[in-house]
Write a structure and sequence with these properties.
single chain; mainly alpha; two-stranded antiparallel sheet; 12 helices; globular
């Protein structure tokens, strides 16, 4: 009976579009009523909704349709005229760079360090029920470290996960139709000081060192993190860094991995 409502397909299609493009056709994904925003591209919304219905509400074909579209594949390097005429990119004349969500950042770090456990989530190691003495003033606030995908992490309403909250993860106490993106000093300090992040960088460096001499290490690192080869200028700068950094070969590549893992190119889709 839910799918029989005419708004269902439109709301779902709008959410998927917003996820990929960064802004919904309707800017208020939780409110399609009279107090919500009107669609910026009504025909586009109707087309996406009709495709969703035609594919029996399967999400994967809709993902494929959007990601193969001209709007999604446009360059993020907009012309001066585009910025002047459409500063908020309402008309999708260029691609708006999108920072990875907190969950995507965490999963990406696990992937490049080869630490990701792809086995589906299992039960969390809660203490025996007989030992539960939690109260309003002494609530349960454990954080269980896991290498599984972020979708399997435990979510608590009274205490947000430290990493997810740092990078604007959703508030479990309320609906989060739009992720608010912040850039604050504590995020930079995380990359500088966090032991877990440093361990991911160290494992990434070990992975690159293990590939030598079969593959040039700088090329291998750029391919792994950015899915492209470095430019000649980037290769020269990287070699200069490696040759001047004070430390062992392993420490040099660990430092380089930390720098690249905290770069905008790793953290943003553009």
């Amino acid at each position: 009976w839910i799918t029989s409502h005419p708004l269902f397909a439109r709301v779902l299609a709008n959410r998927v579009w917003q996820w990929h493009v960064g802004q919904g056709v309707v800017a208020t994904p939780n409110d399609f009523g009279s107090r919500g925003s009107v669609p910026s591209h009504p025909k586009l919304l109707e087309f996406l909704a009709s495709q969703l219905v035609a594919n029996n509400y399967r999400i994967k074909p809709l993902h494929r349709l959007i990601m193969l579209s001209d709007a999604y594949q446009r360059s993020s390097h907009a012309s001066k005229a585009a910025h002047q005429q459409d500063p908020n990119n309402k008309w999708l004349s260029y691609f708006s760079p999108r920072r990875l969500t907190a969950e995507e950042i965490r999963d990406s770090l696990l992937v490049v360090s080869k630490e990701l456990d792809s086995v589906p989530g299992e039960a969390h190691p809660f203490p025996p029920e007989s030992t539960w003495n939690f109260s309003q003033h002494a609530p349960f606030n454990a954080v269980y470290q896991t290498n599984k995908r972020s979708v399997y992490m435990m979510v608590q309403r009274q205490r947000r996960h430290p990493f997810l909250s740092l990078f604007d993860g959703p508030d479990p106490n309320t609906s989060s139709p739009v992720r608010q993106q912040t850039t604050v000093p504590t995020q930079a300090l995380y990359f500088l000081n966090d032991e877990l992040f440093h361990s991911y960088a160290n494992l990434t460096a070990s992975r690159i060192l293990a590939s030598y001499p079969a593959n040039p290490m700088i090329d291998e690192l750029y391919q792994l993190l950015f899915q492209r080869l470095p430019t000649e200028a980037e290769t020269d700068i990287t070699l200069q860094f490696i040759n001047t950094y004070d430390g062992t070969d392993e420490q040099k590549w660990q430092a380089l991995s930390r720098i690249l893992l905290s770069s905008n190119e790793f953290l943003y889709v553009d």
